[in-house]
Amino acid sequence: MCNLYSMRKSADEVASHFRVAKTTSSNAPEEIYPGTPGVVVREEDGAPVMQSMTWGFPLRLKGMKPDAKPKPVNNIADLNKPMWVGLARKPQWRCLIPLTAFAEAEGPKGKMTRTWFSVRGEEIAAWAGLWRVSDEWGPVYSGVMTDANEAVAPVHDRMPVLLRRDEYEQWLHGSFDDAVAFQKRVFPPDLIEMNRTPELWVRKKGETEQPSLL
Length: 214
Prior knowledge:
- The chain is mainly β.
- The protein has a single domain (5-213), classed as SOS response associated peptidase-like (hypothetical protein yedk fold), CATH 3.90.1680.
- It contains four helices and 15 strands.
- The strands form two sheets. Strands 3, 4, 5, 6, 7, 10, 11, 12, 13 and 15 form a ten-stranded mixed beta sheet that branches.
- A hairpin with a 2-residue loop joins strand 3 and strand 4.
- The longest helix is centred in the last third of the chain and has 9 residues, at 176-184.
- The N and C termini lie close together (10 Å).
């Protein structure tokens, strides 16, 4: 499960990387947590556009009070599940999630630290995602997960579905089988750089709900 990633490049740099003609302003921070704003790249009228959205599809669990805040489902465990399959079959609901690195918690409970992973040789990487418009939070997105490769496995058993530059179009326009194939493939471990830090794995101030994965 990925519950924290970073985007430490400017909007202009992101737009240039993904060949977006018009830069979009956003209030997304450098570190993105579930239920907070992030930037995605999607297609509109055949051209890539950047858009600010909330990270996580709102989910109401049984027994929740009517006025309770939904839980953000920020990771996609299986594209074949009912919650995702309808969107995944339609390319217009696929997106690219720009990131500079993703983080996992490592260490004993209460003393966990952040371990960051980035794509070697890429200042900006792309995470395969889905998006939609929700009643609760407006446009929202979630990232597709896969089994961890040898580089990530010592810290966590899952990792984001990362895409090479020449794979962006296939994710955005390919068949449903193409999308599922990305989730099943192993991203080359030699392309992953690990950075263990002493930073404590602390949750964002004011964040009270556990994110979800489906």
